[in-house]
Design a protein that fits this description.
The chain is mainly α. The chain contains 3 helices and 2 strands. Helix content is about 50%, strand content about 10%. About 0% of the residues are buried.
Length: about 90
């Protein structure tokens, strides 16, 4: 009984590890662009599409600015931060 339980636990652990490796290698993070519209619909452009080739660099810039300490990047003006009510706007 104990040996069967150990075998089952080993098989389950192996299957879980195999699934994680498979997802990491083949289902990893693919770059894509999702555009959401006001009516609730959305469109997804993959990294190889011509639309994504135009929009992905802009989206990457937006994410860089937005992720930079509450919008304190070079492209965000002080008055824009104040107008949005950003609590860190008065500093820096």
């Amino acid at each position: 009984m104990r040996r069967r339980l150990l075998t089952l636990a080993g098989f389950a652990s192996g299957a879980l590890a195999g699934t994680a490796v498979y997802r990491r290698w083949f289902g990893g993070s693919r770059e894509r662009l999702d555009l959401y519209f006001d009516d609730g619909s959305y469109v997804t452009f993959g990294a190889g599409s011509s639309e994504a080739a135009l929009l992905l660099p802009l989206a990457q810039q937006v994410l860089t600015v937005a992720g930079n300490a509450g919008g304190k990047a070079a492209g965000v003006r002080q008055q824009d931060r104040v107008a949005k009510g950003n609590p860190g706007a008065g500093r820096g």
